[in-house]
Write a structure and sequence with these properties.
CATH class: Mainly Beta
Strand order of the largest sheet: 4-3-2-1-5
Organism: Frigidibacter albus
InterPro entries: DUF3553
Protein name: DUF3553 domain-containing protein
Pfam families: DUF3553 (PF12073)
Distance between the termini: 20 Å
Order of helices and strands: EEEEE
Largest sheet: 5 strands, antiparallel
Number of domains: 1
CATH topology: SH3 type barrels
Radius of gyration: 10 Å
């Protein structure tokens, strides 16, 4: 699922719900940079974590 992520899409980290809603900043290969409400900018290794797509702001 991470392969469909594009900048601007909203996601949540399944293992870190306290990070809040995140907005994808970039995806280069398997590395996804996401700006989370409560954790700031985080680089996610897409082969290890499957981010959850949020259809619209929830």
């Amino acid at each position: 699922m991470n392969a469909i992520l594009e900048p601007g899409m909203l996601v949540r980290h399944p293992g870190q719900p306290d990070w809040g809603l995140g907005q994808v900043q970039s995806r280069i290969g398997d590395r996804i940079t996401v700006n989370f409400e409560h954790a700031g900018k985080v680089v996610i290794e897409g082969t290890r974590v499957e981010l959850l797509l949020v259809p619209h702001a929830q």
